[in-house]
Design goal:
This protein has 11 helices and 8 strands. With about 220 residues, the protein is an alpha/beta fold. Helix 1 (about 10-20) runs parallel beside helix 3 (about 40-50). The radius of gyration is 20 Å and the shape is globular. The protein starts with a strand and ends with a helix. The structure holds SN-glycerol-3-phosphate.
């Protein structure tokens, strides 16, 4: 499973890109608004940091206007994916994008049937929202597992991005059920890197070394 970072914060993207762990970036209107900066400017900076798929989301709700926005978004950089919501208009825009050779990430997916619709409309990626599902009485990971099974059984080549990841457990479970990608917030990436036993073990190694050799390398 590949890792994308789910943020529009350029410093956080740079920090994680320098570790070599992320191969793409997802943004949404809320994440862009949180940074309070111009959409195109932020996206351009991100494309200079990460050489992989970068999702930028449309804000129109009408299919033709979504398609117009999609064309503008892809003009920013060759790595741009257009994020479209799973609505009837979003599906129609997905089809138009597919016909125009524009790659899409269909977002706000909460069921396996919605994912199937997106795949049939020609989506390059679908983004089931694990965290938001699990915030309710549903099991977000089970939805990802169902989508994976359906796509495999029916030979659909749409890729699954496990999105709205809230904690390291959801990240690990996404990998176990076969999501192609997980898009992960900065704080969950940080939490997934560290382990108290790693810190404790490293301290013991260095203390033992220093006791015998002092600061000799
Ligand atoms: O990628 C979708 C994601 O940004 C939504 O996350 O935490 O707002 O549910 P969240």
């Amino acid at each position: 499973m590949k890792l994308f970072i789910d943020t529009a914060n350029v410093e956080h993207i740079k920090e994680m890109a320098d570790l070599g762990i992320i191969s793409g970036v997802t943004t949404n209107p809320s994440l862009i608004a949180k940074e309070g900066r111009d959409f195109k400017e932020v996206i351009k900076e991100i494309t200079a940091i990460v050489d992989g798929p970068i999702s930028g989301e449309v804000i129109s709700t009408d299919a033709d206007k979504m398609f117009e926005e999609a064309k503008e978004i892809t003009k920013i950089h060759k790595n741009m994916l257009v994020k479209l919501p799973l609505t009837e208009a979003g599906l129609k825009a997905t089809k138009l994008c597919k016909e125009a050779g524009i790659k899409t990430n269909v977002t706000l997916v909460f069921s396996s049937n919605q994912a199937l619709m997106a795949a049939r409309a020609g989506a390059t990626y679908v983004s089931p929202f694990v965290g938001r599902l699990s915030d309710t009485l549903h099991d977000g990971i089970e939805v990802v597992a169902d989508i994976k099974r359906i796509f495999d059984v029916h030979n659909l080549d749409t890729k699954i991005i496990s999105a709205s990841i809230r904690n390291p457990k959801q990240l690990s479970e996404s990998a176990l059920v076969g999501a192609d990608i997980a898009t992960v917030p900065y704080d969950v990436l940080k939490k997934s890197i560290t382990h108290p036993l790693t810190d404790k073990g490293l301290k013991a190694f260095l203390d033992d070394w220093n006791k015998t050799f002092g600061d000799k390398k």
